[in-house]
Write a structure and sequence with these properties.
759 residues, 22 helices, MutS, DNA mismatch repair protein, Chain A, domain 3, alpha+beta, 25 strands
Length: 759
């Protein structure tokens, strides 16, 4: 049987108090007062689906904002007992429905989709409540019924008449000097004049009392009494009509009691999930990976309450630790070194994981635990005449009887309060029985005898809380694979005990070899730690150099691209000069025929996907229209040399040059044929370009067509203002590469395009 005290020892209630700050609904707050941890794996998965959903909304800044909502079940119970709801109670019920209406549209296909379904059922009721009651003030609206509207109109008219008459009476008596001040008052619902005591018999009306000082007499004038009586009568009719409206509406609300209770349940669940996500955001929690079995693994985990305390006080956060629990784990180390904190951290995280809380760690893989049982601290009960050890044994007996497969047992220094050796063997036997029953055990201890027994048992992992022998300070870091000491002598020395006393104490030890071995191990551990730090430093240096090389590579690539663009622009200028120097169109035609003959003499093939090549081989560079020689390979780029220039180019920009005599379509060939065939017509779209850029693009295209042997070029320039069209045609008239040009046929653009025939 699990006791509530088990959870208190793990500070479960303190965590729930932190959650209370974020809750908005009274029903969720009431649940939290008696909230017992869940131990159902299926329920834990459901809770995490809810927390994950609202957590993602929080990250996107779209989390629902809930108003403060009173308990809907309490309101329904009051209305049922009374027979009708009061206006403010109806306003609160309407606020619940208004909240669900606002939430409904965003909750489809989510863990809270039931809210949307219930909201649809209650839509008509919400509309009726909104028509009758003002949700902000709780007042019944004038138009809740025709009769109420008529009565309130009468009340308004009578009150105006009454006040007008009262104003005249007040002015009359004030001018006569009978009144203390030039105003009238309301006392207990009656309109009265503040009369001076000496003139109380001069003012005709009903005496309604004195002021506290006795310096003023309050008199209700006779002239307004009939109007006041009429006003009270109609006000009574108004209240009667309001009660009728409330009874009718209350009956409709009570018929939907079941739906309203379910709505409250789901909105309270949403409120709870939202609170868990908001709290988890404060301590930087994560969604864990829940497993039905397997070892528990936590990376850089810490106690959430210690983190929140440090955050509130502006202190450094707690030291995070890695936790691994397969079958059993024993944690050793000095006093105040963090053993008990580690035990509490692990226990609290298990409870959090089973109840949908975000986990304070960077990574969390948590198996299912059916129960968590704790033995922590002094169980002594003086009133029952129990010793500490007796109470301790009773708690251990309870844990042993209740333990079952998938139980987690947390034992903090068990065996305390009796002979150390007897206590150690008793606890070891208890641990063996617990593990045999299928429970997992986490234990902290100072007992050397118990440590020795546990090291002889397979399946038990060893760990210690770190201790710096140089500063005599705990490091609060959990170190696995090592059984640490209590460091009593080091702590005593730090406090101020003299060396002679400490040496005298050590001389009484039954086994000094343990302490000699421990000191030797710690010195070796320091050396290993120094090597680790040196390795991390070197690794950081390598990473830094790798980043520098990557930046240099990008910079060189950019410089190469810029240089290539400069060379290409220079070549364009030279080519234009060359064209201008040609004597006639016939010479251009002969140059073109010569170039075509050159292409016929050589056939160009693209490289196969296996990228076969040979160092020293000559390839055709498609982007530069030049040949280059292979001099090497870097990563996925081929190094090419063109004269004195060296380039790194991708495979797709290179083509294999094979002479006509080379055999084709043979099995030994590593290339496939891809002959260059000059297209019969090219297109150039200049729509949207200005005159200068359009002519520049046209010149480049004409040069490209000339090299490819293209005879026809369709220039699409559009109609527009006609400036670009006129400039293009004027430019074509004197161009050495152009044999003729004409307006395109209607099917290809008409006057918005020009067909050019090249030499």
């Amino acid at each position: 049987m699990i006791k509530v005290k088990d959870f208190s020892l793990l500070e479960w209630e303190d965590l729930l108090k932190k959650l209370l700050f974020f809750l908005r609904t009274e029903s969720a707050k009431l649940q939290l007062e008696n909230y017992s941890p869940n131990f159902s794996f299926h329920k834990a998965k459901e809770l995490y689906e809810e927390t994950k959903f609202v957590g993602e909304l929080l990250e996107r800044g779209r989390a629902p904002s809930l108003p403060t909502l009173s308990s809907l079940k309490t309101l329904l119970s009051k209305g049922e007992k009374r027979g009708f709801f009061l206006p403010m109670e109806i306003a609160h019920i309407g606020l619940w429905l208004h909240t669900s209406q606002n939430l409904g549209n965003d909750l489809e296909n989510t863990p809270f989709r039931e809210i949307r379904r219930i909201t649809e059922k209650l839509k008509l009721l919400f509309r009726e409540i909104s028509d009758i009651c003002d949700l902000n003030t709780g007042n019944i609206r004038d138009r809740a019924s025709y009769n109420l509207y008529f009565l309130r109109k009468q009340i308004y008219q009578i009150r105006e008449k009454l006040l007008t008459k009262l104003e005249k009476i007040k002015d009359y008596y004030y001018k006569l000097g009978y009144l203390q001040d030039n105003f009238f008052l309301q006392r207990e619902g009656r309109y009265v004049l503040p009369v001076r005591p000496e003139f109380k018999h001069k003012v005709r009306g009903l005496f309604q009392g004195y002021s506290n000082s006795g310096a003023t007499v309050f008199i209700e004038p006779f002239g307004i009494i009939s109007l006041r009586n009429e006003l009270e009568e109609i006000s009574w009719q108004e209240q009667r009509e309001i009660k009728r409206i409330l009874c009718s509406l209350s009956l409709k609300i009570l018929t939907q009691r079941e739906c309203l209770c379910r709505l409250e349940e789901y909105i309270a669940r949403l409120d709870m999930a939202l609170a868990k996500a908001q709290l988890g955001k404060l301590y930087r929690g994560i969604i864990p990976e829940l497993k039905e079995s397997g070892p528990l693994e936590l990376r850089e985990a810490y106690h959430p309450l210690l983190y929140l305390k440090a955050l509130e006080q502006g202190e450094n956060p707690p030291i995070p630790n890695n936790y691994y629990l397969k079958e059993g784990l024993v944690i050793t180390g000095p006093n105040l070194g963090g053993k008990t904190v580690s035990l509490k951290t692990l226990g609290l995280i298990i409870l959090m994981a089973l109840n949908g809380f975000l986990i304070p760690a960077t990574e969390a893989k948590i198996p299912y635990f059916k129960s968590v049982m704790v033995d922590l601290g002094d169980e002594q009960n003086l009133l029952k005449g129990e010793s500490s050890f007796s109470a301790h044994l009773k708690n251990l007996k309870r844990i042993l009887n209740s333990a079952e497969p998938t139980s987690l047992v947390l034992l903090d220094e068990p065996g305390r309060g009796t002979d150390p050796e007897e206590g150690a063997v008793l606890i070891f036997a208890l641990i063996e029985r617990l593990i045999k029953k299928g429970a997992r055990v986490l234990i902290t201890t100072h007992s050397h005898h118990l440590k020795a027994l546990l090291t002889q048992r397979s399946g038990f992992d060893l760990a210690t809380m770190g201790f710096d022998l140089h500063t005599h300070q705990p490091t609060y870091k959990l170190i696995y694979g090592y059984l640490g000491g209590s460091h009593a002598f080091e702590l005593a020395k730090k406090i101020g005990f003299d060396e002679e006393l400490l040496q005298r104490a050590k001389s009484f030890l039954s086994d000094n070899s343990y302490y000699d071995w421990q000191e030797k191990y710690l010195s070796e551990l320091d050396r290993v730690e120094e090597l680790r730090r040196d390795w991390e430093r070197r690794l950081k240096e390598l990473d830094s150099k790798r980043e520098e090389l990557e930046k240099l590579k990008i910079e060189l690539k950019n410089r190469f691209d810029q240089a290539l663009a400069t060379v290409f622009e220079k070549w364009q200028v030279e080519f234009k000069e060359f064209l201008k120097s040609l004597p006639s169109k016939g010479a251009i035609k002969r140059a073109q025929e010569k170039f075509q003959k050159f292409l016929k003499e050589r056939e160009i093939f693209t490289l196969e996907e296996d990228k076969s090549f040979h160092i020293g081989e000559t390839l055709w560079i498609t982007s530069l229209k030049r040949e280059g020689k292979i001099i090497g390979v870097k990563d996925n780029l081929i190094e090419i040399q063109i004269g004195k220039l060296k380039l790194e180019l991708p495979y797709y920009e290179l083509k294999k040059i094979v002479s006509k005599s080379s055999p084709k379509n043979t099995q030994s060939s590593v290339f496939k044929e891809n002959k260059v065939i000059a297209p019969t017509k090219e297109r150039l779209n200049l729509i949207g370009e200005d005159v200068e850029s359009g002519l520049l693009l046209l010149e480049r295209k004409l040069n490209e067509c000339f090299l490819k042997g293209v005879k026809t070029l369709l220039i699409i320039h559009g109609h527009g203002s006609g400036k670009l069209r006129s400039a293009i045609r004027e430019y074509l008239r004197g161009h050495p590469l152009i044999e003729n040009f004409e307006v395109a046929p209607p099917s290809e653009g008409g006057n918005g395009a020009t067909i050019v025939y090249l030499c």
